[in-house]
Amino acid sequence: MTRSAVSRPRFRIGLKGKITLFLALLLAFVVVLLSTLVLAGIREDQQRRMEQSFAQLANSANLRVRAEYLTGERVSPAEFMERNAQSLAVDLGGQSGMAVTLYNADGVFAGTSLPVQPVTDAKDALAHTAKGQAAYITLGNQILYLAPLYNADQFLGTVQFHGSLVEQRMFYRHIRDLFVGTGAAVLAAGLLLGYLYVWRQAHTLGKLNQAARDIGEGRYLDKPPVRRQDEIGELAEGIYDMSGSIASYVNELNEEKQKLLTAIQRLQELEQQQKQFIGNISHELKTPLTSILAYSDLLGMYSDDPVLLQNARTQISKEAERLYGLIEKALQLSSMDIYDFETNAATFDVKPVLEEALDRLHIKAEKREISLSADLMNDQVWADQDNLMHMVTNLLSNAIKYNRPGGWVRLSNRSETLADGERRVIIEVADNGIGIPEELQNRIFDPFFTVSDDRSRETGGTGLGLALVRSLAEKQHGSIKLAESGPEGSRFVISLPGEPIGIGTQEN
Which among 46, 186, 195, 288 would be 20 to 30 A from 65, CA to CA? Predict the structure, then answer.
């Protein structure tokens, strides 16, 4: 007779059970660790707050003792403590709400707010306070905090506060019990949640699959499809990173396309500016040449008229000077735009340069009955001295040109420190001239722009002076702006570095 083997059912834990058990163990570990860290943090926080509270009380005690010492009779520290320690201890105890004991500089009991003298061995703590350090003494549920007392730089003695640890320890035990109860509840909930974990995995895999389909259809992810701290979470992060990389590449292609379109637009603008520049300079060159030719024809027709000869000579000279200035400034602007023009910057005193600029225009101002004044201070500026002279004289010349008889022009300078610590030298040119209309103020630094053709013809203006000043200022890491302008006059402000800013210069 053959006996057939009887198979016995083997005890086996399924995937749901394994994962549930794993999560339960994990939750137990997390709860224990979290409880330990939080309780340690609470204990540390309680100690820190206690130290801060005692430190504030010690500071208040020092202020009180210092006030008593300064307002009372000037005696030695030992005699002061002997006279006032008891009353000070009572006052400090009333202010702090704690029992207070005072010791003199030798560590001898001096006074207390308690009914009887406390008996505590505080020799070691008093030795610390004599060195300027605070000390603690813990006696059961009581803590003694000792801190030094000073009058200015004199060590007077030690103040001792009597604090209680009962409330802190009760709070700590309450939090500990709360963690124990909460931990048990979390473990129970973990068993239930673990059983549902497998179903959640399938749901998570479905999210990953949907995310892959979205990327294939061009709908890029703005966040990971799932957030987990395991291999599935890493896979989700990888899919998210892949989505971001694809989106980034597509955006870079779009940006490059936009840059090409912008470059084409900029080239078109430059072409238009070139045409406009050629047109403007042709017009500006044609006007004085037309006047010169006209007077040349008149000289040929009426060569025997002395008045006409004198007038023609004056006008031809004036138009020739205007033509020369126009060509010179146009060449300067062109050299700045075409070549990498740099200035020979150096550190020098700005006041003598500004004074020389005023001297150069003194006669011109007197002819137009304009008063020149200055408010100058000695200061160091980092700039090209010749270029600075050109900028200032140009602004002063404009202020004189476009002014009224009897008007004034003021030149001043000052120093400013920016938020990042950089020092700037500020130069201002102010006048009470005819001003610039508000709607034209944002165009005055454009090449060939003049407020009015009639005024530019009268003064010989070419519309290039302020454009050149702006270019010179920018090449020296500075700036120029029209701070204000109106019927009562205008004010221009030049800002230049006060010292080298770490940018090398090149010689022309």
Answer: 46
